[in-house]
Amino acid sequence: MDKLKGKKRGNFEIQKYLAPAALVILYIFFGLFGRNFFSYDTFVNILDSSYYIGFIAIGVTFVIISGGIDLSVGTVMMAAAIIGGTAFKTWGWPMWASLLLILGVGTAFGYLNGILVSRLKLPPFIATLGTMMISMGVGSIVANVRSATFPTRASDAGWFKSIFKFISEDGFSIPTGAIVLFGVAFIAWVILTKTKMGRYIFAIGSNKEAARLSGVNVQKWEMMAYVVAGVTAGIGGIAFAAVYTTVMPAQGQGFELYAIAGAVIGGTSLSGGIGTIFGTLIGVFIMSVLRTGLPSMDLQAHYQTFFTGVVVIGAVLLDIYRNQKASEVKIKDKSKDKI
Question: Which residues constitute the domain of residue 157?
Answer without folding.
Answer: 49-277
